[in-house]
Amino acid sequence: MKITERPRRLRKNAATRSLVEETELLPKNLVWPVFIKDGANTKEEIASLPGCHRYSLDRLTEEAEKLSDLGLKAIALFPAIDDKLKNSKASEAANPEGLIPKAVRHLKAEIKDLVVITDVALDPYSSDGHDGLVKDGKILNDETLLVLAAQAKVQAEAGADFVAPSDMMDGRVGWIRQALDESGLAETGIISYTAKYASAFYGPFRDALASAPRFGDKKTYQMNPANSREALREARLDRSEGADMLMVKPALSYLDVIQRLQAKFDLPIAAYNVSGEYAMVKAAAKNGWLEERAAVLEILTSIRRAGASVILSYHTPDVLKWMQDRKP
Ligand code: PBG
After folding, report:
1. Which has the closest alpha carbon to 247: 305, 203, 304, 311?
2. Could you tell me the pTM of the whole model?
């Protein structure tokens, strides 16, 4: 038969397929998001995130060292704060002796060349479980910026390479940038959660930190899942306020948003493969309904293909081990 184009010629065997492969997932693309808590010799599994744990700093260092040997380049820290330390002002967020600054100092001292990213938002520290300060049931924007700037400063002083505001208050990137610059912390970068959606996929994360909102939802600050042009607006603002990277979150339901930002902006794009996305795969794999390794690699490759060069994923430890096994 006369068929001029036969795309299957490029798929005929593994060597040919690898020759024409367009996207590669590498250890350097992955960031390990990890939960930490006070104490020693502790590694508690999180029920809704099988395979993920809350680590005390000694155990975290042990694990991060092993992963660093497997090619891990970056880690993002999330604190499980004792309920007694939470209050309506989220004051623990800016405590220079708090869990996060301690963890940053520890990791920077113990592990060479590991990029340490810290989260800037009030929810783990707030008795209201919201990312900003609350008054009369409303989330305050400008008042929150003062606390976020103080929080970012403490993290940067401890040695964080990047602070990552995930709060979605207006003006926070500029405000944080200014606070860092005025404190002689111009070298600390900002990875902004630029397009962070009010998503149903954050449930297991909120279990991990006991940080679910105590009233209402986050729809007055996180974005509407129906919008992608609005992500361009957020990206324009973050860029003009001094962000070093733009993040889309969640990843899998928002591949179009990743692609749009990648095409339009000249900053690196990060994507957060969030807790609910991880939990879905784990649950299906546990039931024998999906082959875990193939599904995970397909998902992460699709996030790369969409245009993210930095991927935060709870699958990171597994993927690094699989990549090691694959080596000759
Ligand atoms: C909150 C924050 C959330 C996540 C990261 N930072 C949850 C939320 O906005 O309620 C979710 C990450 C995940 O689900 O893996 N500042």
Report:
1. 311
2. 0.97
